[in-house]
Structure formats: C-alpha cells, structure tokens
Amino acid sequence: MSFQFDLTSWQTVGLVIDYAIKIIAIGFVPEGRRPSSSTAWLLVILLLPFVGLPLFLLMGSPYINRRRHRIQQEALEEINKKQTSIPDRPEDTVIDDELDSMIRLNRCLTGLPAVTGSNHGLLPDYERSIETMAAAVDEAEQYVNVEIYITSWDDTTDVFFRALERAVARGVKVRLLFDQVGSWKYPGYKQLGKRLDAIGVDWHLMLPLQPWRWRFRRPDLRNHRKMLIIDGKRAFMGSQNMIDSSYLTKKNVKEGRHWVDIMVELTGPVVSAMDVVFAVDWYLESDELLGAAERPQNPALPTHNKSDVNVLQLVPSGPGYRSEPNLRLFNSIIHHAKERLILCSPYFIPDESMMEAVTSACFRGVDVELYVNEQGDQFMVSHAQSSYYQALLEAGVKIYRYPAPAVLHSKFMLADPHAEAGGGAVGAMGSSNMDMRSFGLNYEVTLMMARGNLIQQLTDLTEDYKQRSTLLTLEEWNERGIVRRYIDNIMRLTSALQ
After folding, report:
1. Domain that holds residue 27
2. More confident of the two residues 236 and 491
3. Whole-angstrom Cα distance, residue 460 to residue 469?
4. What are the transmembrane regions (predicted)?
C-alpha cells in the first residue's frame, strides 16, 4: 500500500508540474514575440513540457547577455551624441521623399547617417575576391580590421593570411574577429589560434561559448558580419566568408558544391561607419576601446570619377538592437517598389510582415523576382524555405533557382533599379539573409544604396544569375509529392522557434 501511495503521489506531483509549466508558458512565451514564433514555442512546450521548457530557456529567451545589450545601447547613444551635427544625408544630393524617409528610419534605429562612398566595383569571383582583399592588405600603413563570420586558414585563403603576416611584419596593427560556432566545424580550427598568434595577429572569438571562463550566452546567437577595413580609408563588405568555396567538407568536394558570393570594395566616408561597427564588436569581445585618433574621422572621397560616387548608409542589426533594423529596411524597400523588385537570398524564410509586403507588391503590379538555390545546403532551412513557394507563386512571384551544385550565397535586394538616380532606385546588400534568423538572432551589417552605380552593377549581376537559373512554375511546384509537402511544413514550424 505504501509503495502504491508513493507512486501515486509522484504521479500527482508530475501532473501538477506539467500543468504549471503549460499555464506559465501560455502567459509568458508570447511576450515581445512574433505570433508564429509564439505558436511554435508553445506547441513544443505544451506537447513536450519537460523538453520544451529547457530548450526555451536555453534558446528562446528574448534577452541576450545584459553586458552586450548595455554596451550596444551605450554605443548607440554615443554615436547619436557625436553625430548630431551631421545631416541625415549629404545635403547636396537629390533624393526623393520616399528614399529620404528610409534614410531617416535607418538613422533613428542605428544612429548612422547616409554618407557618400566611392564604389570600386563588385567582386563576384570567389577566389579573385580573396586575392583582391589580400592585395589591399599589402597596402595597409596603420591598421587592418577584419571581422568575418566563418574563418579558416586553408589553401585558398592562405594568400590573405600571408598578407596579414606581412602587414604585421612592417608594423601594421592587425585585428581579427571571427565567430566561434560559425568556424569551429571546419578543418584547421583547432590550430587556427596558434597560427594567428605565430604571425602576430591580435584575434578574438565572437560570441564564444566558454562557461569555464564565465562566458556563456544563448548558443543560437551568431555574429554573421563580413567586413575588412584598412586604415579607415578602404573597406570591403558583403556575403563572403574567409574559407575555400567548397567549405572544405568531403561531401561538398565530392559533389563539386561551391559557394557563389559577392563583396564590394569601397572608399570614402562610409568606411568610417564600418569602423564604428567594428569598434563596438571589438570592445564586446576584447574589452579594448579603439581610439578615434587611430582612424580618420572624415576620410576623403575620391573625385577623379564622379560616376563612382554613391549615397550609402550602413545598417547594422542584431540582438543588441530592439527593433530589427534590417527587417524594417527590407520591408521599406519592398513597399517602395513600383515596377520591379529583385530579391536574392540563399535562405528566404520571411516573417509575416515581409511575406505580406512581397505578395502585396505582386498584387499592385510589381514584377517580383526571387533568386534562390535549386538545392539548399541545409536540410531544415531548405525545406522551411520551400514551404513558402506555393503562396509566393500564387501571388505572382517569379522564383529563379540557381543550379546545383553551386550554392548562391549572395544577399541583396533592389527596387526599381532602372529608375532615375535619386528618384526611386534603391538597393541593399551585405551579410543579412532574408530569414527570421538574420532578423532576430544574427549580428548583421547591410549597406543601403540610395543612389549611384552600385545599384546598376547589382542589376547587371542579377541578369547573369537569371541566365544561369531556371524559372520555377506553379504547375511544376504543384506536382511535388505529399511527403515533400509534409516535411516542408514541419520544417516551417522549426524556423519560427526564436
């Protein structure tokens, strides 16, 4: 009798805890969260409370490390304070009212105004891009700041690291930030720190998981930015990581899978904005404040070729920002489109607001083109993405799939690219995908283009992608099997667990 009573008691306690978890979750999980995300988390917690709750506490909390949040807010206040006298955009530029409002939005959210910058060209060739960045490092005189999500010292990237080595040898200060979780699964990671120490590079991991050093945070956060800044005068940014285009896995090499990316080379005042973003990230990981005296506050803009001069605005985003600047920028561009909208992202998993914006653009007669991959490199993400294709195709979106085994990794958006400069054409490019992870969990950096030849270069690149891609039709998509539909829908739920 005693054993039966004890067992019943434990069952009662378990039942009470089970219901308590569910009741508490219903009241607290939806706070400050998208409806889709709330629904997904509640589904996990209600079905598997003893598994779902620990996962939510570990990965679903809306709060990041307090120190990081505090530093990000202090940095934003400092940026606003030091740049109050700087106008939202260059006063001598002609910008229509809608673009002007986007610039004001971005500045309100990030503190950074639109400035001028000279575009030295897109770098769509993977290996050539790395070689060009290495050549730029060889011209450095004061410092080199590198911040790249995935970093690996391999045969392809060796030319870049040797350039860093030569820079250190001639007295240039070289700093390197790379994401720990993003980099640790690739060959050579365990030796990377020692190799960097050997050549004199000052390096730090971004968002490290080091509980033994009291450095712990949400394990699903990433610093996804890709930037190279030289002497505060010259910079590169875009979608490319510092690793071989195959990402060095046996399966990729065997199948011939390789990544297709873009970087852009810039000079002029926009480089100072990139330095500001790097300085905040450097302080977060090193506790070292970078002095403003190290870099020019107003780097000169080359005037030898005025057609290269662009009006640009840097838009950093990430968990330290409370209002998802990249998502608001993307949605603003989508709503702005009148004739043509180009979306290019390897991972297109829109939230409700972006999905509505894209389909609304179709309904008002905008020619919408979405460039994605024929075969994704991540199973769950690929299926979550394709779960949106039915609604997109029915609305009239033209989905172009870049052929396997290549992985189209470029990330950019263009609205009305053939409109008159300053009169409607607008674009954005950078590290941010158009998915919920990039909106809420990744630290990203995006470059908005309000006028200039960079928009036309991205438009020309789009035509190249179109020629290589195949158009997915609604009829073809409707022929997919029931198993594919089921898997897509399951993976769609997991994409909302944020």
Report:
1. 2-60
2. 236
3. 15
4. 12-29, 41-60
pLDDT given at position 415: 97
pLDDT band at 304 (very low <50, low <70, confident <90, very high): very low
The whole-angstrom separation of Cα 23 and Cα 17 is: 10
Calpha distance 145→225 (Å, rounded): 13
Q: Could you say which DSSP state residue 417 is in?
A: T
d(Cα 261, Cα 256) in Å, to the nearest integer? 16
Alpha-helical segments (H) within 125-232: 126-137, 158-169, 180-183, 189-199
For the ranges 48-52, 147-151, 271-275, 313-317, which has the lowest average pLDDT? Answer: 48-52
Can you read off the two tokens belonging to residue 428? 């954005």
Domain boundary among 308, 341, 371: 308
Q: Are 451 and 432 in contact (CB under 8 A)?
A: no
Q: How many residues does the chain have?
A: 498
Give the list of residues 6+ apart from residue 247 with CB closer than 8 angstroms, or none. Answer: 150, 186, 257, 259
Residue 465: CA count within 13 A, CB half-sphere? 33
Residue 111 domain flag: no
Of 222, 327, 302, 316, residue with least CA distance to 274? 316
* Whole-angstrom distance, CA of residue 442 vs CA of residue 438: 5
* Tally: H helices and E strands in the chain: 19, 20
- 238 and 156 in a single domain? The answer is yes
DSSP codes joined into one string, 433-464: -EEHHHHHTEEEEEEEEEESHHHHHHHHHHHH
pLDDT at 121 over 90: yes
Only one residue has tokens 């500045």, namely 107
Query: Which residues, in sequence order, are bridge partners of residue 82?
Result: none
Q: Span 352-365, mean pLDDT?
A: 97
Residue 214 forms part of a structural domain: yes
Rounded to two decimals, the pTM is: 0.89
pLDDT for residue 1 is more than 70? no
- 49, 14 contact by CB (below 8 A): no
Q: Which of 317, 358, 365 is nearest to 339 (CA)?
A: 365
Angle at 377 between CA 357 and CA 358, to 5 degrees: 5
Compute the Cα dihedral for 373, 378, 379, 382 and give only its sign: negative
Contact 166, 196 (CB under 8 A): no
Output the CA torsion sign for 402, 432, 206, 267.
positive
Overall number of domains in the chain: 3
CATH of the domain at 394: 3.30.870.10
